[in-house]
Design a protein that fits this description.
The complex is a heterodimer of chains A (166) and B (330). With 166 residues, chain A is of the alpha/beta class. Helices cover 45% and strands 14% of the residues of chain A. Chain A has helices at residues 3-12, 15-23, 45-54, 76-84, 105-122, 140-157; strands at 36-41, 63-68, 89-94, 130-134. Chain B starts with a strand and ends in a 20-residue tail after the last helix. The chains are: A alpha/beta (166), B alpha/beta (330).
Chain lengths: 166, 330
């Protein structure tokens, strides 16, 4: 099991965390818990997620993280597939511009994701359900912030377009 | 020995696929020598009751073109499926949804609104739109239902083979017919065309540089198109990188970029996503390291209609299949 998931899953069991998040107004009580797919690059942002975990920064457990080698490896098909499979939001994280382990993979993501977002709005799907963020290996706190904020956004948007009725 | 029976049928299509069969020229005589045509609405006077009178599986092969978007089309293809040993999805519309598939960006209501009320050439003061049932006093007239969502053939019935193209070229049609007649068929589900990308067989492949960068996006009417240079180099969106080869590059030879009618190669589940990925990665590639978010947004904004461009022929077969009508159950 992926470490970030393990850790966030562990924290989720901790009631205190939920109370904290509620106090911060992060988890609004509209009764909807979004399912979010996180796609993190191996070199920076997955390490950032890992650091968030070992540093015990709290963030909502709605995100399920998939590790890929580079944000440039993220075929737009992956994102469409996630949406089609019922994800309410997809977060893609990569190295900051200039820091890509493969030199220029994140630059490709920087153009693919905005173009995909533009296209998704033509499909009647809110482009805010997709977010691209840069997170370095040392930015554990930032990773937690990004996930927290994105979860809040998706929660406000409500269930995703292919969400099966439960 | 009785000749094998063959049926041709059309659903939501333009008639170009019928034309493609006629384009076999003299070869069509070989076909009619070898088979008995039992249904071909565009050319021969057979009716639905003639098909119903056949026993199950009696038709050796049915070539069905067009997407499925009405009740009648759905009934007919289901009937043909019962009566046929093999079903071949003939042409882009049956294979991927095709141009009629772009109807999935609308609903039945918005299509009626535009087609029967809003177009400048329409005069319809009573706002009449097609009704499934109309009582004319002496009886009730009926029309088949038009569905909200256009479907591909294989979303409606099981399909054995696919002949891609808008329309399929004569050589691929003849190859398919010969393969069926001689029983030398590949695995079920095969697309009966080469499994190579268009760029591999493009006559302009040599003009595609090692590092291909599109500095800006142009639309074909905006520039005088160089008849020999790679379209992408000229700033024109060409779906060659994400499209199957085998069409004979007819559009390219007519100086028009590939629009993707052959669909994706094997293993690609969503042609539009692949096309989007390919175009986005070469868009502003030169100097990408200096590009700000605003710069790349400016380039992206030059693509006026990404969904319609990348899914021109494949919207119903895509992962998202259509524009969301509403979230629950859409």
């Amino acid at each position: 099991m992926c470490k970030a998931y393990e850790i966030s899953g562990h924290l989720a069991a901790n009631n205190k965390m939920w109370d904290n998040l509620k106090l911060k107004g992060i988890m609004m009580d509209n009764g909807f818990e979004p399912k979010i797919v996180g796609i993190c690059c191996n070199w920076c942002s997955y390490a950032g997620a890992d650091l968030a975990g070992v540093s015990r920064f709290q963030y909502p457990s709605n995100i399920k993280i998939i590790r890929v080698m580079c944000s440039g490896r993220v075929d737009p098909t992956f994102i469409l597939k996630a949406i089609e499979a019922g994800a309410d939001g997809v977060l893609i994280t990569g190295c900051h511009p200039g820091d890509c382990h493969y030199i220029a993979g994140n630059y490709k993501a920087a153009r693919r994701i905005p173009l995909l977002k533009k296209m998704l709005s033509q499909f009647g799907i809110e482009s805010e359900r997709i977010r691209l963020e840069w997170v370095s290996a040392s930015e554990g706190a930032r990773f937690a912030e990004v996930v927290t904020d994105f979860t809040k956004t998706v929660k406000e948007l409500g269930p995703g377009p292919f969400r099966k009725q439960q | 020995m009785a000749k094998p029976k063959v049926a041709f049928y059309w659903c939501a299509s333009c008639g170009g696929c019928e034309e493609a069969v006629v384009d076999l020229n003299e070869d069509i005589l070989k076909v009619t020598d070898a088979v008995d045509i039992v249904l071909w609405p565009v050319a021969l006077d057979f009716r639905r009751k003639d098909v119903e009178a056949l026993s199950d599986g009696e038709i050796a092969v049915s070539f069905i073109n067009g997407a499925v978007r009405t009740e009648e089309q759905e009934e007919m293809v289901k009937l043909l499926r019962e009566k046929s040993g093999l079903v071949v999805a003939f042409g882009s519309c049956a294979h991927l949804g095709g141009i009629p598939g772009l109807g999935n960006f609308c609903t039945r209501e918005t299509i009626f609104q535009t087609a029967y009320k809003e177009t400048p050439s329409t005069e319809n003061p009573e706002g009449t739109v097609p009704q499934e049932k109309t009582d004319i006093g002496i009886g009730v007239l009926t029309l088949p239902e038009l569905y909200n969502t256009v479907k591909t053939l294989n979303q409606t019935i099981p399909v054995d083979y696919y002949l891609p193209g808008c329309p399929p070229p004569p050589d691929l049609i003849m190859n398919a017919i010969n393969a069926i007649l001689t029983g030398q068929l590949p695995d079920k589900g095969t697309v009966l065309a080469p499994n190579k990308a268009q760029c591999d067989t493009c006559p302009r492949a040599d003009t595609k540089p090692e590092k291909l960068s599109m500095a800006e996006i142009k639309r074909p009417w905006e520039i005088k198109i160089d008849p020999e240079k790679c379209f992408l180099v000229q700033g024109l969106i060409c779906l060659g990188p994400a499209t199957r080869s085998g069409c004979g590059e007819t559009c390219i030879r007519a100086n028009m970029p590939c629009r993707g009618c052959f669909g994706p190669i094997d293993g690609v589940i969503d042609q539009g996503a692949r096309a989007l990925s390919a175009i986005a990665s070469i868009l502003g590639l030169e100097g990408e390291e200096k590009m700000t978010e605003e710069d790349s947004q400016k380039l992206i904004d030059q693509i006026a209609d990404p969904a319609g461009t990348f899914y021109r022929f494949s919207l119903p077969s895509s992962l998202l299949t259509r524009k969301r009508m509403e979230y629950t159950g859409g």
